[in-house]
Each structure stands twice: as C-alpha cells, then as structure tokens.
Design brief:
Pfam family, one: Aminotran_4
Radius of gyration: 22 Å
Low-confidence stretches: 229-236
Number of helices: 7
Mean pLDDT: 88
Organism: Tetracentron sinense (Spur-leaf)
GO molecular function, one term: catalytic activity
Protein name: Class IV aminotransferase
Shape: globular
Strand content: 25-35%
CATH topology of the largest domain: D-amino Acid Aminotransferase, Chain A, domain 2
Bound molecules: 2-acetamido-2-deoxy-beta-D-glucopyranose
InterPro entries: Aminotrans_IV (IPR001544), Aminotransferase-like (IPR036038), BCAT-like_C (IPR043132)
Length: 360
C-alpha cells in the first residue's frame, strides 16, 4: 500500500514521494498547529473556522510568552511581536492558499468511505530576514512558514460503538497549555515510561487529585451532585431535571482550549445540562457516573477505566512498573449524558462544517 499523505509548504506542493506522517513533521519543527478532518464524504471541514481562530491564538500566545516554541530552541533571544489582526490578515489567507492546493490532490487519491485529516502548522523561520535586520523586534508575520499536511482518515463505521478509553494519570500539567504547539509532541514522549499496558490516553494533574486534561484530549466527568450537608438531601436541579453535572478543568488551570471542549460546553448550556468548569477531583470519584475524552478527530470517546498512582511520589520512579495504581472502572450500560452530548455534537458537525467547495 502506498502512503497517502500530502504536504504544501507556503503554497508550494511538495513532490516528495514520501511525505512523512504528521507526527514526524511536528516532532522535528517548532510551531503552533491545529488538526481537523473532513466530514460527510469529504464535503466539508469540521469546525474549520474555530480551528483557524485557535491556531492564530496559539501563535499569538507563543509569540508573547515562548517565542522559542515558534522559532526553535536556539532562538531564545529573539523578541517576536504580533498584531491583533494577525489572524484575519496573515494566517487565514496563507493557510487557505496552501489548503486550496493540497485538497484537490488529496481528494483525487481518496478511496470510497475515507475522509481527510488536515493539519495546519505555523512555524517561525528567521532565514526569511536579511542578515542585517534587528532581531530585537521581529514581526511574526514576516517570518511565518505555513505547512498544510493532509492524510487519509478512516472514520469508525457508523453504528458500531467504539471501544472505551483506558486512562492513566502520569504527569504534571503543561507549560503554556493554552496554545497547541509542536514542542509538546516531543515533550510528552517523556511521559511514555509511565504508560501502563493497555492505557490508551495519559492524563495530567499538578497534584495527583485534580485532573486537568489528557495528553491529546480534554477530559470530562459526569458527576452526581454532592449531598447538601445541612439537610442531608440530595441536591436535585428542579429547573433542569438533572441530578448530576458535567465537569472539566477551566482553561485558567492550564488546559488546552480544545475545539471539541468548547463545543461540549456550548451544547450543555443550550440543552440545560448542568456544566461546571472545575477540575474533576479523583478523591470524589465515588460521585462519578460517566467520563469521556474529546478530540477533533474522534469527537467523544467514553472512558472505561482510569488509573491513578496511589502516591504522588511516583514521579521519582523509573517506569510504570514501580508505581502502585488505584483503578476505577465505570459501570457498563447506557451512558445517558455522554450520548446526549455526542448526538448534539454530530448535529452541529453537519451545520458548522466549512464547505470544501469554498476552499478549492
Ligand atoms: C462521495 O464523493 C465522491 C467524490 O466526490 C463521489 O464520487 C461519490 O459519489 C460520493 N459518494 C456518496 C455516497 O455521496
Ligand atoms: C481560499 O482560496 C481559494 C483559492 O485561492 C479562493 O478561491 C477562496 O475564495 C479562498 N477562500 C477564502 C475563505 O479565503
């Protein structure tokens, strides 16, 4: 089987017969990125406007706080600045231009039933400046390299329930979590030594109790409301009719503002499902009814098991084998709230897809 991957750099189609997987591109270069995919027989790109806005935000945040995450580690002395119109004026037309060249080629090679995974990656390249230019103040728009990587994505067959996720908490929250950047792809490899067998996603926490997010997903629990201590009564929201609430860590705790994370919040608000942005607390897990993780490629995936080290000292350990784990297994059966949110997100995916015909 020949690999079906396509790469356009600054509007120029790469004719390399062997375009690397997107993970290789991200591991070898510093920059901000976002990944979405097509939907409905490759007729639209899922939530593409939101992805481009988040990409521009990531670039701006990195420029302001961690320019080396855009320029590569050897360039820590350069001061980058961006303008508030970076998104409209610079990033959007550059990404659109490269995407408009990648999509027709990829669509032609696509087989029946396949969709396309699309990654837009923005990196800083100081070689674009003249030698004598002052590196004290570099306008980011002058040094941008824009990559659009397109690969084939085979969505799970509709109607067949996907397997649940098996999560393990293995490390601390990220630096500049509000931006999605490629150096994290390299950094998160250090966590792999703690990955127990069969764990499908790794969770992050700064204290071993309050769970922030997954390495490549956002994390949610559906939590029964706590007893009212004064009356001993179970708190029931008569207005909404729900006796539980959805919880996910707030952005201010240091989590990625995932596109799907934001959609889950919007769906809960519009459906009247109680939602609270608070980091789910492992010590209150007896109240957890359901849990799920979100990502742009797979939307929602329900959680089957979560493992957490019984002591936070585990960070000193060498491998997962040296860690003693506490495990929680969710009960089988219908996951009512997760299913309700997922159904509504599928509806919005249809409504908020960016038509491919507007790009090519
Ligand atoms: C899917 O798209 C392809 C190419 O655009 C088209 O030939 C095919 O008929 C479409 N399939 C369906 C089921 O719409
Ligand atoms: C994207 O680029 C294509 C091709 O250059 C152009 O036809 C289209 O109008 C552009 N779309 C947007 C939204 O800028």
């Amino acid at each position: 089987m020949t690999s079906c991957r396509f790469l356009v750099i600054n509007g120029v189609v790469s004719h390399s017969s062997d375009v690397p997987p997107v993970s290789t591109l991200l591991e070898t270069q510093s920059g901000a990125y976002t990944t979405s995919r097509t939907h409905n027989n490759a007729s639209c790109v899922l939530f593409w406007e939101r992805h481009l806005c988040r990409l521009a935000d990531s670039v701006r945040i990195l420029c302001e706080s961690k320019p080396e995450f855009i320029l590569g580690s050897q360039n820590t002395r350069v001061s980058l600045f961006s303008s508030s119109s970076l998104w409209e004026s610079t990033i959007r037309p550059l990404v659109n231009d490269s995407l408009s060249k990648a999509l027709p080629i990829a669509l032609e090679k696509r087989n029946f039933g396949e969709e396309l995974a699309i990654t837009a990656f923005v990196s800083g390249n100081l070689d674009k400046l003249n030698d004598e230019e002052n590196l004290e103040e570099v306008r980011i728009s002058r040094v941008l390299d824009v990559y659009v990587h397109v690969g084939i994505y085979v969505p799970p067959v509709f109607g067949i329930r996907e397997n649940g996720a098996h999560l393990a908490l293995v490390g601390c929250g990220r630096d500049v979590a509000r931006a999605k950047f490629s150096d994290w792809v390299r950094l998160r490899k250090c966590l792999e030594k703690f990955r127990p067998p069969l764990a499908t996603e790794l969770l992050l926490s700064n204290d071993g109790d309050r769970i922030l997010e997954g390495c490549v997903t956002n994390f949610f629990v559906v939590c029964r409301r706590e007893n009212n201590e004064a009356t001993g009564e179970y708190r029931h929201d008569h207005k909404s009719g729900y006796s539980c609430e959805v919880q996910t860590a707030p952005i201010s705790d240091g989590v990625l503002p995932g596109v799907l994370r934001q959609l889950v919040i919007e769906v809960c608000l519009s459906k009247g499902i109680p939602i609270r942005e608070v980091a789910p607390s492992w010590s209150k897990r007896e109240l957890w009814e359901e849990a799920f993780i979100t990502s742009s490629l797979r939307f929602l995936q329900h959680v089957e098991t979560i493992r957490v080290p019984s002591s936070w000292e585990f960070l000193e350990s060498e491998t997962w084998k040296d860690v003693s784990w506490e495990e929680m297994r969710f009960k089988e059966g219908p996951r009512i709230i997760t299913a309700e949110i997922e159904t509504e997100i599928m509806v919005r995916a249809g409504l908020e897809g960016y038509p491919v015909s507007n790009i090519i």
